[in-house]
Amino acid sequence: MNLNAKRQGVTPFTFAKPADYKSTITELQGLLENRHLVWLDICEGENKAIIFRCNLKQSVFRNIEFSSLLINHCYIDGLCFENCDMRNVFFSNSVLTQPIRLRHCQVAGMRLLEMPRRMFIFEECTGVEQILFA
Known about the structure:
6-stranded parallel beta sheet; globular
């Protein structure tokens, strides 16, 4: 267990994915606290959420124009965003085990608080030079 993650109130979530498991949801709403968001495919719908002290593992966000998304004090492993508008996305004080992948995203205005840019992989994204650091 990552002791630094434990000090920050984040508990890594580890177990094997069942062979036939597939979970697709169309929206995240409200405050999601102390949850395990694992192996999800989140696509299109209205996404206006605060994700706080959660485990985000092997999940994909696809084709989303975020109204507002705050990811704060989370344990992140294998997270990917594809074809998303990241202008209203805020990452803060999270523990990353692997870089977050952004593919074909508009990232101008995305905000990072105490999150190093090197922990993000930008693949054919626009607006990378306009990310806000705090």
